[in-house]
Structures
1.
Amino acid sequence: MKKIGLLFAVLLMNSYYGQKQVRAATIGFMNVENLWDTIQSADYIDGTKDFSNPAFHRSVPLDSLKYLPVTEENYMGVWNNESLKGKKVVRKQGGSHEFTPKSSKNYTYEIYQKKLANSAKVISEMGAQYTKTAPTIAGLIEVENRQVVEDLIKQPALARYDYGIVHFNSFDYRGIDVALIYQKRRFSPSKSYKREVVVYGSSGKREYTRDILVVVGYLDNERVAFLMNHWPSRRGGEVASAPKRNASAKALREEMEKILAQDANTKIFAMGDFNDDPVNKSMLNHLGAAESKEKVTPEKPFVNLMYPLFKKGVASLAYQDAPNLFDQIIVTPNLIQKGVSKEYSIWKTEVFAPKYLINKEGNYKGYPFRSWVGDTFTGGYSDHFPAFVVIQREN
C-alpha cells in the first residue's frame, strides 16, 4: 500500500511537471547523532575578533592550546559573546573526550569515516524520490564543529552538489552544535547569525545549550529564512525540564517575528529536534505553532507541518520506549496554498524512514537504527528519523 501511495505521489508530481513545468526543492534536516572527529578538542574564544569572524569562537585540538594566548586561565564569567569581548579564553568540551581512539568507545578514524558515509547517504536521499536530486537545504543536528561538516559534504554522496556551510560554535556544555548546508547554485545567504538561548536548571544555575542558527537569504530569488533548532532534552523528567524548552520556544518566536517585521513576505522554515511533540505547550502556546493554516490566530501565527502526521501516529524516535515526533518543521502560513503558483509552497511533508534506517531485530526492533548503543558502534545511522518537506512553484 505504501508503494502504491509513493507511486501515485511521483506520478502526481510528474503530471505537474508536464503541465506547468514545476520547479521543486527538498528542505530537510537530520540528527546525525554525535558526529565528532577523532581529535579531542576545546573551544578557543578570541574576544578581540568580531562576533561574525569564525576565529572569534573556534574548535581547536587540545594539544594546540599551548600555542594560543590566554588572558584568563580560569574564566568564571558568563559564556556569551558580549561577556567575552576583549578576552582570550578556553572552554572545555564536555563530550569531546568520549570520541577518540583511546576512549571507551574506541572511536577510530574508520568509525568516523563510516559515520560520515552513513550520514551523507541519508541526507542525499531525502526527498530524492520526488525531486530526483539531493536536498537544496539540509539542516544538521549534533555536529562537533565546522570541520566535521566540511568532511561530510566532501563525501561521494554529497560532493557533486557543491554545498555551502553555515555554522557557528555554541557554548553547549557537551560541545555540539547545529549547522546548515545549502546548494550554492540555488540558495544565496544574505545574513546568518546565532540566537543565544538562555535556560536555567532546577537549582537556578545557568545551563548552556545549543543556539538557534538563523539563516536568511534567497532561494531561487525568493526571500526565505531557515532557523535550525536543537532544544534542551527531557533529562530530569518531561515536566521538570519543560521550562527550558518553553524558553527556547519564546526565543525562536522572537527571531521569527523579527524577520517578519523586516519583511512580512519572508517564507520561514523553523526546523529541528525540539525534544517536545507538536501538542506540547512549548510548541502550541509559547512558539505558537498551530495544527493547520485554518487554525492560525494572532496567538498562534505559524503552522506546524508535523501536527497532522503526529495525529496519525507517525514518530521520528522512541524516547524511553514511547514514540515521539520531536523532529518537526514549522512554517509561516504564506507557504501553504492550494495548487501550484509562481511562488514556492509546501507540496509534501514526510518523516524519512526507509527500511535501512529501521532496526530489524532485538529489543529495539522498529526503532531508528542508531549508530551508538552505549559505547558500541552499531554501524547504524541515527537515533532519529530525518524529516523533510518538498516545496514547488511554477518554473
2.
Amino acid sequence: MLRKQGIVHDIVKIAETIYGNISDKVVSFLDEKRMRSFFSVCLCIFLLFGRVAHAVDQQKMRSTELKNGMKVYVIQNNSLPIVMHMLIYKVGGVDDPPGLSGIAHYFEHMMFSGTKKFPKFSDVIDGLGGDLNAETSSSYTAYHELVHKKHLPLMMEMEADRMQSLRLVDKYLERERNVVREERKMRVESTKQALLAEEVFNVFYRNGYGRPVIGWDHEISNYNKEAANAFYRKYYNPNNAILLVVGDVDFGEVVRLANQHYGKIKNRHERVEKKFAANIEPPHRSEIIVKMSHHTISDPEVMMLYKAPSVSTESDNKVMLAAHIAVDIVAGDAFGVLYNELVKNRSLATSVFGEYSELVGSDGVVSVELLPKLGVSPEDINREAKEVIADLMERGVTEELVNSAKYRSMAHFTYGLDGVVSMARFYADTLAAGQSR
C-alpha cells in the first residue's frame, strides 16, 4: 500500500501494537483528504489562541548571547524569592554514536561525579535547602537547581566548573554504568508501557529517534572512559548550551553573572558537528506488521502511531497548535471521541490516552493508547477504533468539539506556566527545539 505524498500535516499512519498472548502490530493508513479537512477546521478556530500564546511568550522572556556562543534566557517571576537555574545542553539520545546507545543519558549520571573544587555537587545543593535534578531526552540534556535567589551566583559557579573540570574517575564510570543498567531493568523491562513504546518507536522511526534514550542493554556494556571523555569534550561547551533562569531575578544581573561565570569558558570546538543527529524520516511506503510478546505482560494493549508535523517539518506554529487540538478531539483522555465511543458507549475499553510530540528534530508523532476490556480482543478494539475515526472524518468536526478542546488546551497551557518549576520545564522543551519565539 503506497502512502500519498505532499501533505506533511496529515496523519497518514496508524501503528497498532497488541500485547499479551496475541501481541502484534499493524500499520494502516487514513484517507488524506479527510484528515486535511480535519486539521483545517481545527486550524481556523485555533488561530486566535496561537497569537495569544505568542504574546505571552514575548512578554515574559528576555534573552541574549554571550561572546562564546552560549545563549541566555531569563523569565522574571517575583511570586517567591526563589530561582530555577537550568543549564540545557543540545545533545540527547539522537546523538549517541553507533554502538553506544544511551551514552548521553549515561553522561548525565557522570556529571554528578564531582570536580576538584566541588567534589560532592549534590551535597552542596542539599546543604542550601535546595533541590536539583537532571533529565535526558532524545534532543537535549538538562540540569537544574531550585534554590533561594541569593544562591544564584553559586549555582552558576558550580555549573560552570563542571562544564570545564569534571572528574571522570574509573570507579565512578563503572558504578554509574551499573546504575544505568539497573535503571533500564526497573523503568523499561519491568513496565509494559515502556516496553511497548521502545518496540514501537524502534520500528516507527528509521533514524536516531528510534533508539531508546536509556540505551540498549547490550550496548551499555560498551561505555568506557575514552568514549565518555570524547562525548564530554565534544558536546559540553558554551556554544552548545542554553542557560535558562526563571524566578525572582533581574535580567541585567543574570546577564552580568552569566558573563562572569560562563562567559570566560572557551569552547573546545568552534561548532558542534552532530554526525549522528536525526534528520527527517524517509517515506514510509510499506505496510508493517510486527509480532511481539513478553513474559511480564498479561493484559493486551493497543497503540496507534500517526506521522505528524513537527518543528523540523513545519514552519507555521499554528499548524502544530491545530494538531494538538486534533489529538485532544480524537483521544483526549475522558473527553475524546474514542473515549466516548469505546469506553462509555460501546464498553469495549477501560482507558484511552493520546499524545502529540512535535518538538523533535525529525517528523512528529501522535500516539494513541487503548486498553481493551477483559474479553475484548486487540483485533476487535483495533477495528472499532478505526471505525470511530473513519466516522468522525465522514461526519466532520463540529464547532462544539473544537471549542471544547481549545479551552481545555488553553487551561492546560495556563496551568503549565504556574510556578517557576513548571515554567522552566515548559520553556526547556521549546528552547532546546529552537523555538525561542
3.
Amino acid sequence: MNKHFSFLFLTSLFLDVFAGGCGSKMKKVQPLCERHRCYTDPHPLSVSKHPILPRRAWSDDPSVASVHEKYLIKKSAQMEIDRIFAAFDYEKKDLGWLVSNLALVISELFQTFGDTANEEFLRRTIIDTLQQHPLRVHNKRRLYRELHKASGWTPGLETFCSELKYLIDVEFIKEGIINFITDDLKRIKHHGSLKDKEEALRNVNDGFLNIRPYGQKNITNLLNRALKDYDERAVFEATVAAFKDRLVYPATAKTIISEVKAEDETRAHIVEQFKDSLLNGLIKDFELQREAIRAKKHMLEEASKVVCEGPEV
C-alpha cells in the first residue's frame, strides 16, 4: 500500500513540475473564433485547446530559470505557429484567416513572454519559425499590417515588427533581382544571338551565371532606386543573397555592385563602406563555391572514366 501511495505521489509531482502546474495556474486564452468574429463558429482552430505553456521556473537559480524560460518560449512559439499552418485550408486559400490568426498568436506570445530578458530570443524564434513555412512576401507584408491592429501592443512587438519589415524588404528586393536575371536568360533563349546562346550554355556547364550588360544595367538601376526607399543594409543583403542563389560570376557581381551609388551625400560614405565589405565577402564565398563545383566536376569525370575503363563483359 505504501509503495502504491509513493508511486502515485511521485507521478503527480513529476506531472506538476514538467507540465508547469495544471488547473488554475494554466493561462486561459480565449478561442480565436470568439475574438475574430468574421468567421463562423465552431472555428477549426481554438487556442483554448492548446493554451500557451505556463511560465514557471524550475529553480530559484536565475541561470536555470532562464534556460527553462527559453525552452517554454521556443516550444510555445513553434507549437502555436505550426498549428495555424496545419489548420490552414490550402484548397480554399483563405489567406485573410491565416494572416489574422498568425497576428493574434504572435501578439499573444509577446503578451506572455515579451516582458522577459529573453525577448530577443522570442523574436528570433518567431521569425525562424515563420521562415520554415511557405509564406510569400506580400503575405508577410499583410501580416506586418495586421500586427499593427492587434490588441496588446508591447515594445517587444514593436521591435519584432521592425525586424519583420527588414526581412520583407530583403526578400522583396531579392525577388526583383532574380526576376531581372531570369528575364535576361529568357531574352537570350528567344532573341539572343548564337554567340549569346553559346556563352549562356558555357556558363551553365561551368556552374556560374554571367549576365549581359543590358541585364546588369537593369539590376544596377533597380538597386539605385531601392537605395532611395530602403535601408542600405537590406539592399546589399538582398543583392548578395540573389547572386549566391543564382551563382552569378564574381566579376559580374563586382561590376553591378560597383555601379550602385547613393544620391544622398550623407549616405554615400556608408554605401561605399558596405560595397567594399560585401564585395570582399562575396568574392571569398564565390571562390569557395567555385572550388566545390570544380571538385564535384572532377569527381564525376573520374567516376565516368572508371565506368568506361571497366572490364568487357
